[in-house]
UniProtKB/TrEMBL annotation:
UniProt keyword Oxidoreductase, yes or no: yes
PANTHER family: DEHYDROGENASE/REDUCTASE SDR FAMILY MEMBER 7B, DEHYDROGENASE_REDUCTASE SDR FAMILY MEMBER 7B
Family: Belongs to the short-chain dehydrogenases/reductases (SDR) family.
UniProt cross-references to SUPFAM superfamilies, sorted A to Z: NAD(P)-binding Rossmann-fold domains (SSF51735)
Xref: Pfam families: adh_short (PF00106)
InterPro entries: KR_dom, NAD(P)-bd_dom_sf, Sc_DH/Rdtase_CS, SDR_fam
Keyword field: Oxidoreductase
Domain Ketoreductase, residue spans: 7-191
Protein name: SDR family NAD(P)-dependent oxidoreductase
Transmembrane segments: none
Length: 271
């Protein structure tokens, strides 16, 4: 998809962060936009920032499977086609396996994994029908390595990676006109840490402060990297220098990366 002009792009979680930055970046490329979020206020702010773009907003809770399928049908009805889908909506949880509740575990999986899986399946027939489709699923560097107190988030993001990589291969083998990319952002300066749920013994303020120090990439830079990856049909899109570093360490060390993460976590997470 080298030419994005007049393509219909669907973006979930567009009320802030990477989702909003993607909407702005794709509008500059001439895309027609179907953007959604569960946050009405944030979504309205994104629409206002888009000014003269061809955009329609939808309130969507990606944890609701039926709502996602209804959303896909509504977008096709409103725009006539779908060319690009970016499953971006996500949440975070910081809690150990022993402390996290079943409710919080389900919350993360319903949004971060099932939201992506259902979003992919709901829009896939329409992407195929377009004759020039591209599906982009947002994982994380936590879909590349395991991190203490991120087991639920790791589970969701590893699952997104496996699901997306398998789907890309299926589209190639079936000779379907749909490219598939999995995105692995490192630390991005968004509100995801501020809105994260915390285990009962977690120092939320300290963890959020630590995340802010590690967030190396702006949402705008992240969006530019993702758009470039879409144009190049990259199967794996790494966002930020930390993402490239983590990917390299994982490839070089294999499972031996874990003592390095433990050392970092002992200093920064177990305080």
């Amino acid at each position: 998809m080298k030419d994005l002009n007049n393509k219909v792009a669907v973006i979930t979680g567009a009320g802030s962060g990477i989702g909003r930055a993607l909407a702005l970046a794709l509008a500059q490329q001439g895309c027609r936009l179907a953007i959604s979020d569960v946050n009405d206020t944030g979504l309205a702010e994104t629409v206002a920032a888009l000014k003269d773009a061809d955009v329609k907003s939808y309130r969507l809770d990606v944890a609701d499977r039926d709502a996602i399928y209804a959303h896909a049908e509504a977008v096709v009805k409103d725009f006539g086609q779908v060319n690009l889908v970016i499953n971006n909506a996500g949440v975070a949880l910081s809690a150990s396996v022993r402390e996290m509740t079943d409710e919080d575990f389900k919350w993360v999986m319903d949004i971060d994994f099932w939201g992506v899986a259902h979003g992919s399946r709901a829009f896939l027939p329409h992407l195929i029908a377009s004759g020039d489709g591209h599906l982009v699923n947002i994982s994380s560097v936590f879909g590349l390595i395991g991190v203490p107190k991120q087991s639920a988030y790791n589970a969701a993001k590893f699952a997104v990676r496996g699901f997306t990589e398998a789907l890309r291969q299926e589209m190639n083998l079936e000779q379907q006109p749909v490219a598939v990319s999995c995105v692995h952002p490192g630390g991005i300066r968004t509100n995801i840490a501020n809105s994260a749920r915390m285990g009962k013994s977690e120092n939320g303020a300290a963890q959020r402060k630590g995340f802010d120090k590690l967030a190396m990439t702006t949402p705008e830079k992240a969006a530019a990297t993702i758009v470039r990856g879409i144009r190049r049909d990259e199967s794996r899109i790494l966002v930020g220098p930390d993402a490239w570093g983590i990917d390299a360490i994982n490839r070089l060390l294999g499972a031996a990366y874990q003592p390095l993460v433990e050392r970092f976590s002992r200093k920064n997470l177990y305080v």
